[in-house]
Structure formats: C-alpha cells, structure tokens
Design a protein that fits this description.
Blueprint lengths: L11 H11 L10 E8 L4 E13 L3 E14 L4 H18 L11 H18 L4 E10 L2 E8 H7 L1 H5 L3 H10 L8 E5 L6 H11 L13 H13 L9 E5 L4 E10 L5 E11 L4 E2 L1 E7 L7 E6 L7 H7 L3 E7 L2 H7 L4 E11 L5 E15 L6 H14 L11 E2 L7 E3 L6 H14 L9 H22 L1 H11 L4 E9 L2 E5 L7 H41 L3 H6 L2 H20 L6 H50 L10 H27 L10 H24 L10 H31 L1
Parallel strand pairs: 1-6, 3-7, 11-17
Antiparallel strand pairs: 1-2, 2-3, 4-5, 7-10, 8-9, 8-12, 11-14, 12-13, 13-19, 14-15, 15-18, 16-18
Helix pairs in contact: 1-8, 2-3, 15-17, 15-18, 17-18, 18-19, 18-20, 19-20
Length: about 750
C-alpha cells in the first residue's frame, strides 16, 4: 500500500549483528567468534548469540558469514515499564503534597505530563544520583516539583532488574553453549543505558566489561540498510552472508489408518519435525508420505513449545499454522498403476525472511525402461549425415522421463519420527513372503528342487556340444535397462490459520481509508493554518492602527470601523471560532482584508516612495551626463546615431516632466485619499530609462574604432636611414676604444 518493494524481512538483532560484522570483516577468520547482543528496548528485551566465521561459497568464494546460534527474550521487560513506574511515583508525590483536592491520577492530561517528565528523569538519573523533577501547570495551574534519587528509582524497578539475566540464560540454552564460550557481550537499545541494568548484566555474564562499541540507536537500521543494498541491483557492496535461525520449531502432523492384528482399522496420529528450534534458514525440506494411495490432508503446526512461559504460550492461541488438503492422489496412482510408487513428496521452503512456504506436492513413481543398444561410431555418423541431408527423422519423439536421482543437495529429506513403524512393516512383509504356495511346499523346499533341476539342465547342456553353448550365450545377453522417475504435481488446498494476505478488494478499501485519513489530516492542517492566520491578522492589525504611519493615512471613521470589525471577529473566535469550518474562517479573513485593503495600500505606497524616487533621480542624472558626453564626440569618432541620441533625450525629458507634475499633484492631495503617485508607475519609468541606457552602453562597449589615415613612406625611410648610419658610427667608435684599451 505504501508503494515500497520489500526485498527481505530481517530480525532487528540480526541486523545489529550484520552492522557489527561489516565493520570488522578483517577480524573474521575460519575460527568461529561468538558474540552476544543484549538488546533492551522500550517494550521487550532480547539476547542473541551470533557466531562469525569465513565460509566458502560457489558464487563469491570465501566470504564472512554470521550465524544465529541462540535467542532468548522477555516480552515484558523494557524501558517503558520503568517510565510508568516513575510516573506513578511522581503522581504519588504530588498527591502527598496536598496542593490540589483532586487526584492527579484521574486526570489523563496531567498523567501524560508526568510520563513525559518521568522519561526525562530516567535519562538524567543515569548520570546523576538525584534530580529535581518539575512540571509547570500540572493540574489547575498548580506547579509540581519534587526530588527523586537514583536509589528510589532502583527500588521501584527492583523486580525488573531481577529479570535482566533471564534472556541470557534462555539464549545459552537454545544455543547449547556456556558463558565461557561467549567472547563478548554488546549492549543494544536505549534501556541498557540504565546503570543498574548494566550492573546486573555484568554480574550475570561474568565478564570484565560490557561492549558499547556500536550505536545502540542506529545499529539495527544500518544493518538492514546494508542488507537491502546487497539485495538491490542499484548498489554494489561486499558480500556478507547471513544465516538466521527459526526461534520456534515447526512440525507436520497427519493421521493414517493402521490395521491391527484382529483386522480392526484405527487412526494413528503421526508427527514429523520439519524444522527444529534454532534451525538455520534459508533452507529447504522434503517430507515423503509413503503409505497413502488416495486423497488425504496434513497439518503444519508449531512443535514443542515447552521452553516458553505460560504467558508467552497464551499469546500463540492455536498452534496450527496451515492445513493442507491434497486431491488427485488416487487418480495419479490409477494413471501409473504399472510403476512402483515412491510416495507423495511435499517440498517446503523457509526463505530468507523466515517465511515458511509449501512450494509444491508431487506423487513420484519409478519404472524400468529398456535402453537402446549403443550405436557404433560409424552408425552414429551415418545417422547424423542422413538427418542433415534428409530433413530429420520421421519417427515421433518418445515421452521423456526423468532419471532417478537422489534428493537435491539444497533439499533435505525429513526422516520419519520413529523407525518402529518401518520395522513393523518389514516384519509383516517377511511373514507374508514366508507363507506357503499352492503346492503346499515351503519356500525352502522349492529352492532345493530348483537347485537340483538347474544342476540337471547344466549337465545336459554340456553334453550337447558347442552348438548348444552358443545358444546359451545368446540368451544371457539381455537388453540394458534404466530406472526412471515419473513425477506428477498434486493439486493442493491451503487453509492458512495465520494472517492471510489481503485481497484486491481489501487493498482498495485500505488504500481508500488511508487516503481519507490523509485528506482529513490535510484538511485539519489547512484549518489550523487559516485559524492561525486569522488570529495573527487580528492582533497585527490592531497594533498597526496605533502606529503613526497608519494613523496618518486612515480617517477616524475608517479606524473605528476596522477596530470594531476586528473586535467582533475576535469575540466570534472565542465563542464559536474553534468549532467553525475552514470555509467560515476563510470568509472572516477575507472580510477583514477587504476592509483594511485601502489603508494598507496607502501605507505601502508611502513607504516605497523615498527609495524609488531616489533611484529615479539618480538614473535621470546619470542619463543626462551620458547624453551630454555622447553629443560632444567628434563627427568622425561618433558611434551613436542621431535617432538614438534623440530617443534617449526624449525619454529623459518625458520622465522628468512626469515626475515633477505627479509629485506636485500628490503633495496637494490629502494622505487619506488614494495616491496619484504610484510605485508601479515609478518602476515603469525607471525600467524605460535603464533600457535605453543599457542599449547605448552595450553599443559603445562593442563598437570598433574607425581606422586613421596612414603617414607618407618617404619620411619614415629617411629617418630610418639616419638612425642606421648613426648606429654604425657608434659601433665603429666602440670597437676602436676596445682595441686601444687592449694595447695600452
């Protein structure tokens, strides 16, 4: 319904263990390291034993893996129970102070305030030995203040602290381990910050210290995020294998008719354990029903739950998870009557999320078929060539059957509950085989007669010579045989006693309900927003009407009318406003804004005038200065046309005239009247001037200077000749001076 694609479900402590292992993958080796995570949250406490070691996989080679070994929990031990006891203690202290004749415990709002204060108090007492609890206006505007010590808090929760070691012992029992096997105990969850919890737990586990090297609040979320990234195709992370464990055992139960010695048929109840307690998953299992030849049913139930308390057992209700009804079993036996039955196989799968699924049920038969003799190489080559050039064989394709195979390695065959049934069945079969035949002879006598007959026939064969021996050799050559498996799916009906998946109609109804709730929330938010806007407008307008700039532009009649309407609306809010609809609130706000619109407009215009008029004057001065400079440019260097300069001059003159006339008219008008000088008109004139100026400035910036006429070549040539002659004379004199210095 939320539009999210769920990749996998993961237990919170498994996610914590993953987050812990990801950042320590270099420390994980082939030797298993065992760590216990003790998680005390708001409502429950869980202890989880996890082992880390590297394993080899076909897909990614050697990778680290975490395996859940044991889990213990206490459903009612958590920080919220401590908060409730502190809250009740604060309520008792307030009642003892006799500040109010009322019992604070009968006031839900006051108890909610005390609960919030107790949560803060528990946090502060974790670092301080005492603290002053205080709540303003607890009830009837009476403040509450009382001192609470850590000793008092520990006495209130003494029975809770005694239950702290319980999950540890349960986890050790489930994992079949001892405390010496645990290398480290790591704290998770906010309630583990209580000093007494740490003290009792440290004493119970017998370690030097407790591990606090993970973020107790974010570890579970970060581990789940890493697993989601590993499953998603959008991210690439280093593999870290996760093997969770089933906390509760699951078994299959069914009834079968058994015939007693006197011929009386009775129903016998059978059980097969499908998944043991703490069985790792993901895992596949197969159960074979060997003695059924007709339709039957079986139940998937929880197994032995004797390790749970009576309180936990009461939460389960019925132990039955699913009832499976099979149909078409008898038809499959009739269809394959000549084949040997290998039973009805039910394939179960507990996936990565710990969800048990019945993938399929099939009836399996085994038959013997004769294989064709192996053709020689030349025969195969000839058949291949004839197939290529002849367009293939015209013979129809025979029915394909599966060769007999063992259970695939990923599927584990569930053994029977007891071997007693099989032994009894074998004994009965042996007794049947030992019964005499029609001739009245025992099987032993028949065997002796068969042996004597065989001896006589062999002697007779040897006397007949080589021709008879060749016939015997031909008879011994039998055709090769192959055992094949035939499987046929069995229709099944699942009666799930667990929570059913919602139907399409349920999804539509739920989405509609969620959308209705969302619409109600949005409508509530809109109403609160309009209500706040209306209240704020009333208070702000009442304050503005006493300010000088508003009093200057509003007449007394306008002020009285507005103030009267504001007071009327304020009284209406106090009496009827909190039950008014959003539409009514909008109408009230619209009426007030329409009444104050003219006054606010005049004030806003007067506030904008100084800045806008200053900008307009500065732009006019700059434009006039630029225009005078542009007109002084000589004709040969002029880059602006006469039309452009005239256009700028026209805009300057028109703007100056408009400004002077409009300002003069505005000065004669009363502040109570609608202004003639409008801010939008000033902005329009300002933009027109700036546009003309920017056009001319850009043209001047990118204009190229006109080329100047070149000087005559003769003058430059004579001057160059004279310079060259002088340079040559100076160089000669310099050489002469150097020679004189050398001879001196």
């Amino acid at each position: 319904m939320a539009g999210l694609k769920v990749l996998q479900l993961i237990n919170d402590n498994t996610a914590v263990a993953l987050n812990y292992g990801v950042f320590r993958r270099k420390d994980i080796g082939s030797t298993a390291q065992t760590v216990m995570f003790y998680d005390m949250g708001s409502g429950s406490t869980t202890a989880t034993i996890v082992s880390y070691q590297t394993v080899k996989t076909k897909e990614s080679g050697t990778q680290p893996q975490l395996q859940i070994q044991g889990v213990g929990f206490d459903r009612g031990l958590g920080g919220f129970e401590m908060d409730l006891r502190l809250r009740d203690h604060l309520a008792k202290l307030f009642n003892d102070q006799k500040k109010s004749p009322k019992d604070v415990r009968q006031n839900h709002r006051a108890m909610a305030k005390l609960l919030k204060e107790s949560q803060r108090l528990k946090t502060v007492l974790s670092a301080n030995v005492d603290f002053m609890a205080q709540v303003e206006g607890l009830i009837d505007d009476i403040d509450f203040k009382a001192k609470v010590t850590r000793v008092e808090f520990e006495e209130l929760c003494s029975d809770l602290f005694e239950r702290v070691p319980g999950p540890v012992q349960e986890a050790l029992t489930a994992a079949d381990m001892k405390l010496e096997d645990i290398e480290q105990v790591i704290l998770v969850g906010g309630a583990t910050r209580v000093p007494k919890v740490q003290e009792v737990l440290l004493k119970a586990v017998g370690k030097m210290e407790l591990g606090k090297n993970i973020n107790a609040d974010e570890a579970a979320a970060m581990g789940a995020v890493y697993q989601a990234a590993a499953l998603s195709k959008a991210f690439k992370v280093k593999p870290f294998l996760v093997r969770d464990a089933a906390i509760y055992p699951i078994q299959v139960e069914f009834n079968r008719e058994v015939e007693e010695e006197e011929g009386i048929k009775t129903l016998k109840h059978n059980k097969r354990i499908l998944f043991q307690r703490m069985a790792p998953y993901p895992q596949r299992k197969v159960i074979t029903f060997n003695r059924y030849t007709d339709d039957f049913a079986f139940n998937i139930n929880y197994g032995d739950l004797s390790f749970l308390s009576q309180g936990d057992l009461s939460l389960f209700g019925s132990l039955n998870l699913t009832t499976v009804k099979l149909s078409g079993v008898g038809q499959s036996f009739q269809k394959h009557g000549d084949a040997e039955s290998k039973g009805i196989k039910a394939h179960f799968n507990m996936d990565e999320s710990g969800v048990l699924l019945l993938d399929r049920v099939e009836s399996v038969f085994e038959t013997i078929v004769e294989e064709k003799e192996e053709e020689s190489t030349l025969t195969k080559l000839g058949n291949t060539i004839s197939t290529l050039f002849g367009g293939g064989s015209s013979e129809p394709t025979p029915n394909v059957t599966e060769p007999v195979q063992d259970v695939p390695p990923e599927e584990e065959e569930v053994p029977p509950e007891s071997r007693k049934e099989i032994n009894e069945a074998q004994n009965n079969e042996d007794k049947d085989n030992e019964t005499k035949n029609d001739s009245g002879k025992s099987p032993t006598e028949e065997k002796n007669e068969e042996k004597s007959e065989d001896t006589a026939s062999k002697t007779e064969t040897l006397e007949k010579g080589d021709q008879k021996s060749e016939n015997v050799e031909m008879e011994k050559k039998t055709k090769p045989q192959k055992r094949t498996k035939i499987s046929e799916d069995v229709p099944m009906e699942l009666i799930i006693n667990d929570i059913m998946d919602p139907t399409a109609e349920d999804l539509i109804s739920s989405k509609k309900k969620l959308q209705d709730l969302t619409d109600r929330d949005l409508a509530k938010q809109e109403r609160e927003k309009i209500l706040n806007s209306l209240e704020a407008f009333i208070f702000e307008t009442q304050d503005k009407l006493y300010q000088e700039d508003h009093q200057q532009v509003a007449t007394k009649e306008e002020q009285e009318q507005i103030l009267s309407k504001l007071k009327e609306t304020s009284d209406w809010l106090d009496e009827e406003g909190y039950g008014a609809t959003t539409r009514q609130l909008k109408e009230k706000l619209s009426q007030l804004k329409g009444l104050c619109k003219d006054v606010f407009f005049r004030v806003a215009e007067r506030r904008k005038w100084p800045e806008l008029l200053t900008d307009l004057d500065n732009t006019l001065n700059t434009s006039n200065f630029f225009l005078r400079g542009a007109k002084l440019i000589p004709g040969d260097d002029q880059i602006f046309t006469e039309v452009e300069l005239n256009m700028l001059e026209k805009v300057i003159n028109e703007t100056t005239v408009w400004k002077n006339e409009t300002v003069a008219v505005q000065e004669k008008r009363s502040p109570h009247e609608r202004p003639v000088l409008l801010s939008r008109d000033i902005e329009s004139k300002l933009l027109l001037l700036q546009r003309e100026m920017n056009y001319l400035l850009n043209k001047a910036k990118f204009a190229k200077p006109k080329p100047k006429p070149k000087a005559k070549n003769e003058t430059s040539t004579d001057a160059g000749y004279k310079v060259n002659a002088t340079t040559e004379d100076e160089s000669k004199n310099l050489k002469t001076a150097e020679s004189i210095d050398l001879t001196a």
